[in-house]
Amino acid sequence: MKIIDIGHNNYSVDKAISVLETEVSSAMCSNKIRSIKIIHGHGSGTLRKAVHQWCQEQKGRFRDVILGEEYDLFHQNSIAMRQDSGLPDDRDFGRRNRAVTYLWLV
Length: 106
Prior knowledge:
alpha+beta, Ribosomal Protein S8, Chain: A, domain 1, 4-stranded mixed sheet, 3 helices, globular
């Protein structure tokens, strides 16, 4: 699982989304990465909303987008993504953390 932290760098929203796009595209081209954890932080929620909007605009590009608050044992695609990614250790699993979003790559 690749981790992209755009929430702790004091990026503007536009810069953060640009970094996100570059990192996601690079990961998808590698064909070795099966999932991505985006850390957008809590803050005012502006960056989280921008990331979620960006994900919606990318519809069909990912197998699934999993919000941090859904990422737990009872979310079917969370379990499937973890298995597909080799069950990575992730301290946010089951914590309903709104500061992260997951991409399950095709």
